[in-house]
Amino acid sequence: MKNKRIGRQTLAFPQPPRIISSAAIVGDIEGQGPLGAYFDQVLEDDTWGEASWEKAERKMFEQTVRRALQKIDLESSDLDCLLGGDLLNQIISANFAARELKTPFLGLYGACSTMAESLLLGSILIDGGYADRVACAATSHFCTAERQFRNPLEMGGQTTPTAQRTVTGAGSTILADNGYGGKALYGNVQVTAGTIGRVIDLGITDSNNMGAAMAPAAADTLCTHLSDTGRSIRDYDLIVTGDLGRFGSEMFLELCSDHGIDAQRRHLDCGNLIFSAAQKVDCGGSGCGCSACVLNSYLLGRLEQGELRRIFFIATGALMSTTSGMQSDSIPGIAHGVVLERR
Amino acid sequence: MLDYLCAFVIGGGICVIGQLLISLTRLTPARILVIFVTAGVFLTALGLYEPLVEFAGAGATVPLTGFGYSLATGAMEGAMENGVIGAFTGGITATAGGVSAAILFGYINALIFTPKAKK
Amino acid sequence: MKNPQTAQQKQYQQRVNEKMPRSNVLSQCLRAFVSGGIICCIGQAVRAWGQGPLGLSEENLAAFTAMVMVFLGATLTGLGVYDKIGTWAGAGSIVPITGFANSVVSPAMEFKREGFVMGVGAKLFSIAGPVLVYGISASILVGLVTCLLK
Q1: What is the mean pLDDT of the segment spanning B96-115?
Q2: Which of A153, A155, A160 sits opposite B116 (nearest CB)?
Q3: ipTM score assigned to the predicted complex
Q4: Residue B81 lies in a domain
Q5: How many A/B residue pairs have CB atoms within 8 Å?
Q6: Minimal Cβ distance to A251: which of C16, C87, C103
Q7: pLDDT score, position C16
Q8: With a CB-CB cutoff of 8 Å, which residues 23-82 of chain C face chain B?
Q9: What is A189-342's CATH number, 3.40.50.10070, 3.40.50.80, 3.40.190.10, 3.40.47.40?
Q10: Which residues of chain A are within 8 Å of residue C83 when distances are taken between CB atoms?
Q11: Which residues of B touch C33 (CB under 8 A)?
């Protein structure tokens, strides 16, 4: 039963799941960024009328799934499974949102790689015939991440130039089997393959330099994917990484060129896309909401419009915790990739 | 006016030492605060900080090394007057004002205000 | 404690260290100098106020200055101004006692939603606690040595 796997880490989907809808909700600063116009909703207030940021974050997760369903006249009861996660301890945002959505739920933790991880697993469920419609989602919130991983918001101090800002945002994708005949937002955008990442740790310990910690994992996933599939980088219109940021992207491209892959001209990073240079965010955006909201608005839109035909979406995650950080452990990175194509 | 110039130069200078520690060694602010207080205590014990306080006034007492200075002078005076008991009570007695103020004003501010994300 | 590093890890870290964008230490130091100097001058003015108009004794003067500076630091933190100062000033706003006040107020504010005992109450000293632990312990040590030498 190995016929759906190619190479060491890559899975092909003979009955590729279709992406039928998506939605993205972001915070105000993300809304002011270059992609502001693409998002479904830009929050004016980062608590969204809730009593805490944690409650706002779970509301973003829930609403982004509902929104994507609404666009194609479906309800959460039409979903066979919900896959997703966030950055908070015990993924409370996703868990509590799933309580409201009342769908069968598999909670995932892949740090900022969660969006690709959920698409990968959702596609496996659908291609394997275990589900007809699956929602994949991820969320992060600047304020909840700051207080969990860094310092209180009102604490004065400077960030280092390699630091990245956690994106306040959530994105969701609705996948369906290719027999789906209902209303759809996207004509024929499919998930045709995926590459499961390995945890790679090259010993970076600075939690303000996560781009550099994750770049080796992203490069490893890309190289493995290309060798597994026998494709070249020219077979892709874009290689999109999740949240490597400016410096992480630089290291990623270097590591790729070490392996003889020139990704320079075909590479975009969601962390670089979401904020403009004028927004003082050092090296760009991060967080699992970063790749989730860029994919589910801007990138899928470009695929649908035919500007892009085939992209490799690699969401990257830094798998550290506050405990491992305090015990001066290094930061393991992971990167999962999915191939999205318009057919 | 000279008082202010001295305070500015010495106070600013002590902050530059802190900045160098942060920039070059990547110490977190919490560690910087601990290092400065402890350094203030020991420098005072060695008699090295007192001249700085005489010279710069608030320039030496406002940085956290000055908090260490108050702790150390309090403990040493306590020890001279009351022996071992004084060694234990002197430091906190001398700094009680600042610490109590931090607790009260900290608590009040926490009650009144809600933190906001940096724009 | 740490695992021995592979050649690949060492090489990568070296590469990252070489290429990493760095902050401008000179400009940071200059800003720390100016902002730290200004805060100390404010302290000096508070001192002069206590000494002159209020006529405080030399012993009370130090406590008075500390209390007023802590008040200023705490209030500016509550108003959401101190973190903005900190972005510009760096150590210039961390090292003065106003920075100590900032480190007391900011976590307490942040954890109001976790309740008033284990939230605000406990978090008041989550960052400043170690300062007191090491400062007070060191002062006791110095006091005991003084006892021995007396």
Answers
A1: 94
A2: A153
A3: 0.94
A4: yes
A5: 21
A6: C16
A7: 94
A8: 23, 25, 28-29, 32-41, 43-48, 62-67, 69-71, 74-75, 77-80
A9: 3.40.47.40
A10: 153-157
A11: 12-13, 15-16
Above 70 in pLDDT, residue B118? no
Q: Structurally, what CATH architecture does the domain formed by A18-176 represent? A: 3-Layer(aba) Sandwich (3.40)
Structure-token pair, residue A239: 């290689």
CA distance A282 to A273: 13
* Count of structural domains, chain C: 1
Domain boundaries defined on chain A: 18-176, 189-342
Which residues, in sequence order, are CB contacts of A80 under 8 Å at separation 6+? A103, A104, A125, A130, A131, A132, A133, A134
pLDDT at C52 over 90: no
Q: Classify residue A260 by burial, with Cβ atoms within 10 Å: 0-12, 13-18, 19+.
A: exposed
Using a CB–CB cutoff of 8 Å, tell me whether A14 touches chain C.
Answer: no
Residue ranges making up the domain that contains C101: 25-149
Q: Give the angle A248-B27-B97 at the CA atoms, nearest 5°.
A: 140
Do the two domains A18-176 and A189-342 of this chain adopt the same fold?
yes
What parts of chain A have a pLDDT lower than 70? Answer: 1-2
Q: What is the mean pLDDT of residues B31-45?
A: 96
Cβ separation A157–C13 shorter than 8 A = no
Residue A166: phi, psi to the nearest 5? -65, 130
Classified as helix, coil or strand, A6 is strand
Range of the domain at B48: 2-112
Q: Is pLDDT of C4 > 80? A: no
Interval B14-32: pLDDT, tens:
999 999 999 988 788 889 9
